[in-house]
Design goal:
The structure is a single chain. The protein has 360 residues and is an alpha/beta fold. The chain contains 14 helices and 9 strands.
Length: 360
Amino acid sequence: MKMKRILAALMISASLFGLTACGGGSGSGGSATGGGDTQDSSNSGGADAAGGEAQVVVQIAYENFPGEPWDLGCNEWARLIEERSGGTMKAEIFHSGQLGSKNDLLDQMLMGEPIITIGDGSFWADYGAPELGITSAPYVYDTWDQVWKLIDSDWYHEQEEQLAQSGLRILATWAYGERNLMSVRPVYTLEDMKGLIVRTPNTTSYMRAFEAMGAAPTAMALNDVYTATQQGTIDGMENPMATLYGQSYYEVAKYITLTQHIKMPAQQVCSEQFFQSLTPEQQEILVETGKEAGVLQNTKQDEMLEQYVSDMEAQGVTIIELDDAERARFKEAAATIYDDPAVSGQWRDGLYEMVQEIIG
């Protein structure tokens, strides 16, 4: 059970790590402070620009490729961290899964390692804040305004604190995008989902939702999806347009169905132990610059969307729009997960209704 793993990791970390500034990443991973340019990380843990104190180095890791909005946002974050701290803090960028799988990263983070990584509510639900799962569940929101209304709510801040008590600190919440289905064969109706082998993240709510819609979900790391589709191991994947385009899936799958099943906020998270090792000023720099970089990332998501669609259509991809009636059928099928104990068993009674009331 993951909670047991968390407790074990926290016990080990308490004995192994003090409140020290942290060393940098491997040379193969590369580091950046903006614009995607790699820099020498040999000075990680060295003296700061003013001399004397050790430089605090944090590694920002994610599976997205260079040039995707998430990557652009992370590079901006790295630039802002170094600028605002006067060089006493530095962020190294590790894109494309260079530091390993999300589970590997989480294990390291729970040991106190200075890593920041991306996740969504369905992932953090298994790490001490089960109700966060609803923030990235299917068809919860109709608009992005509703997403941000929930993120600004007292309930969400309570969930952030609950996750921190389990060892993980949410630094910032960014818009990851609207998730749609991409496949090797067309999906026009709910019936077309039957038997479709779809890659999903390894989270219960995603997998159960796609089962409810008739598909055969399979969990897989993002950087394995292209080859798996090419080899016929899976029939497709679901993600926002930025990721579908950025990972070049249009080369191996030629249909995108606008299921719009999730408007997904995603969190930038670090170890609570690492966060508490920072000074209050350093904590503020990390959080405030994370919010600022998120504004850029969110803007890039919107600005680049039309170009992604146009470029994929030029590559022979067919975009399938569902009418309101058909999308309602997808929503109705997915809604069964809210009565599934595997998804909502650790939620308070009436959580879905409470969230709907919060977002209006």
